[in-house]
Amino acid sequence: MKVVIVGAGVIGLSTAWALNRLGHEAVVYDQGMIPNPRSASFDQHRMIRLLYPGNPGYARMVLEGFEAWERLWADLGARHFVDSGVLALGGMGGELASDSRDVLNQIGHPYETLDRQEVEALCPYLALPETAWGLLVRPGGPLFADRIVTGLANHLEGRSVALNEERKVVAIDPMAGEIQLEDGGRDSGDAVVICVGAWIGKLLPHYAGGLIAQRQAVCYLEPPARFAAAWRAGPAHDLGAQGAPYLLPPVDGTGLKFGLGPHLRPGDADATREPEPGEAEGLFAKLAPFLKAPEDYRIKEARICFYTTASTPRSDDSFLAERQGRCIVISNCSGHMFKFGAVLGEQLALAATEALEFSAFARWAAGDPQATAA
Ligand SMILES: Cc1cc2nc3c(=O)[nH]c(=O)nc-3n(C[C@H](O)[C@H](O)[C@H](O)COP(=O)(O)OP(=O)(O)OC[C@H]3O[C@@H](n4cnc5c(N)ncnc54)[C@H](O)[C@@H]3O)c2cc1C
Q: What domains can you pick out in the chain, each with its CATH number?
């Protein structure tokens, strides 16, 4: 079968990879370069973690995700992941660690509970309150996002998969399975997969009310020399308090990075990617209370990126999968879809070629705890 894929982020490229493995024809279109540095999938790292408080469906799906990444590493001939472990801090005024532990118990996945001294020994750079404890979970840590999408694009080119750069899709006829391009071209397939990240409301305006493009930021830091080795050897972090930062360790040539889930606001994914004056410093001020000697850190760079979240009435983080005619839309990527890139690609490839019933795919993608990957 021939499947047209609109959007060459991690989801589009992984879907093309999975279709190619199954012997189907994939044709990919992106409005920008492939990979596109403006896509949500292009940054040094994205975190993969089993911390899903109150959400056993997605926690189990992360395990399926790891299996799919292994299949991808085998095809790429490179493992773009370091199992640094992920440490959630408890006793910080939030429920993340204890609620995540409940879910790990539910799905029967092992973890370590660290007391304050053990957290201090592992992470000597953190300023810890007396109440602190840690939930250390493996596997987990940084997926090297830009290397993954670059590796995927190279792999697909080597397999003669058509990657059409700088070719913006402007209209879709879902019943005919046809796309129309800004340059006047057209293409069609047995199925069309639409995975355009934060641009969904622009391509398909009827989604614009329910799915919001959100502006986010991440910040790269240079730690003080005395903590550099500990940061390199340390885990990825969720600092546990309400609205607290997450951090990714500077491993394998990448930088020390942090971000803040609540630092987001609706925006235009085509707008400038320049951080606002003082924005990085403002973000760092939220991290500083968690660090020893915060004054010795240097902010190297802030990066602006966009993803999509649901607005009311769908004010949740579950992925949206909808089918109309020959067309499948996958969206609400929000701040947690990258980790599922390979497994979502595999399942989308099955759904698009009707080897998997669409309703079963949609339930699984929405994190239904009863659903498993095909
Ligand atoms: C700051 C930040 C931190 C995050 N942290 C994590 C994390 O730690 N863990 C995690 O799992 N996830 C994380 N995410 C989420 C994750 O990065 C995204 O969910 C994921 O990358 C989305 O992939 P995608 O392929 O759907 O979209 P994108 O990567 O955005 O790709 C969409 C592509 O579609 C193309 N496109 C758009 N419109 C058109 C059109 N009309 N015609 C042709 N092409 C078009 C775009 O050019 C783009 O290349 C984070 C996201 C951000 C922004």
A: 2-365 (3.50.50.60)
